[in-house]
Specification:
Blueprint (H helix, E strand, L loop, with lengths): L13 H30 L7 H31 L4 H9 L3 H13 L5 H13 L4 H13 L2 H11 L1 H25 L7 H5 L1 H4 L9 H36 L2 H7 L7 H9 L9 H10 L4 H13 L2 H7 L5 H25 L1
Length: 347
């Protein structure tokens, strides 16, 4: 008996697939925070306000949030990058010299509210496109350091003068850091796999691809990169969750008091094992200011938590070798300490 072939279902139109994907992403983004609280405190019956309960809730909320950001950002960036092959990107950032390219990259970082999880794939994309390392790291410095949440917070609490001064100081650190790293020629300290994935990313840069091919290639690239970064993300967020649940703000506020001349570098050191995104620093900043910590010291702590925290460094280690990571941390930490002392004087 001859089998009757089932008619194949027609493929969904591309706009419908994209719309459904975007809707699913937005729905997941809106429900992940309340779902994390429900799972931690209602299902697992952990005590609200307890160290373990808060650490667990932080982990359950932040892991899907970071993964959603990573998937969304990498997919979109890969599609966009398809319209900017290396021969187009190089004139934009690399072809105008180190100084203009560094200024452009630092400025781009200030308008891209990315945490390290999304800065890393963008870093890889810049390197693949032939953008100089110093220019690339200027972006990597400015993106977490100068963020829109901090600007809005400072504007609301202290007015536009302090907020704009903070932005200018962060840009200065990013530009100077990029220029120094560019002059040191540290390309050999980028992990070798970053250079080796160049051929794998080439199809995403083919401007002749159809939209369906672009999306298919971008999704394949995203899956591969998320698979590589996932162990580092889990480890980094787990460390951050533990610190978030157990680190007391009283200790930080006590060390950072006005009578301590070494308060700024000390709070930067204390911030390294901690982790939070820009939005998560708002209650910390408000608590520290309420305990009497000076503005500059508080800003230094906030910037260190978002820019050079241990979980972030664990993730950045995926693309930077220890020597370059140490240079990166040294430049950013020095700049943050300088900003802290400056704002303590002028504010």
């Amino acid at each position: 008996m001859t089998a009757i072939a089932r008619p194949q279902r027609p493929a969904l139109p591309l706009p419908a697939v994209v719309a459904a994907s975007v809707a699913a992403w937005l729905a997941a983004w809106l429900v992940e925070a309340p779902a994390a609280g429900w799972l931690a405190f209602d299902v697992l019956r952990l005590e609200r306000g307890s160290h373990f309960g808060e650490a667990t809730a932080f982990f359950l909320e932040d892991l899907p949030k970071v993964l959603l950001l990573l998937v969304g950002v990498v997919t979109v960036v890969t599609v966009i990058r398809g319209f900017f092959p290396p021969e187009r990107v190089r004139p934009m950032l690399a072809g105008r010299g180190l100084l203009p390219g560094t200024f452009a990259a630092a400025g781009l970082g200030t308008v891209t509210p990315f945490c390290s999880c999304s800065a890393v794939p963008l870093f890889i994309g810049f390197v693949e496109a032939g953008v100089p390392l110093g220019v690339t790291l200027a972006f990597l410095i400015s993106s977490p350091m100068v963020n829109e949440v901090a600007l809005v917070l400072l504007w609301g609490l202290f007015g536009p003068g302090i907020a704009l001064a903070y932005m200018a100081a962060g840009l200065t650190i990013a530009i100077l850091g990029g220029l120094v790293i560019g002059r040191l020629r540290l390309e050999r300290y980028v992990e070798s796999y970053v250079w080796e994935i160049k051929p794998l990313a080439a199809p995403a840069l083919d401007i002749r691809l159809t939209w369906a091919e672009r999306l298919e290639t971008a999704w394949a690239y995203t899956r591969d990169l998320v698979r590589k970064l996932l162990p580092y993300l889990v480890a980094g967020i787990a460390i951050g969750a533990a610190i978030h649940g157990y680190a007391p703000t009283d200790l930080v506020a006590g060390v950072g008091g006005r009578s301590n001349l070494l308060a700024v570098p000390l709070v930067v050191v204390l911030a390294v094992p901690m982790y939070s995104n820009a939005a998560g620093t708002i209650p910390i900043v408000q608590a520290l200011l309420g305990k009497g910590m000076p503005l500059g010291t508080t800003l230094a702590f906030m910037m260190a938590v978002t820019a050079i925290s241990l979980p972030e460094l664990v993730i950045l280690r995926r693309v930077l070798r220890p020597q370059l990571l140490a240079v990166f941390v040294g430049i950013v930490a020095t700049g943050i300490v300088a900003i802290g002392y400056l704002f303590n004087i002028v504010a």
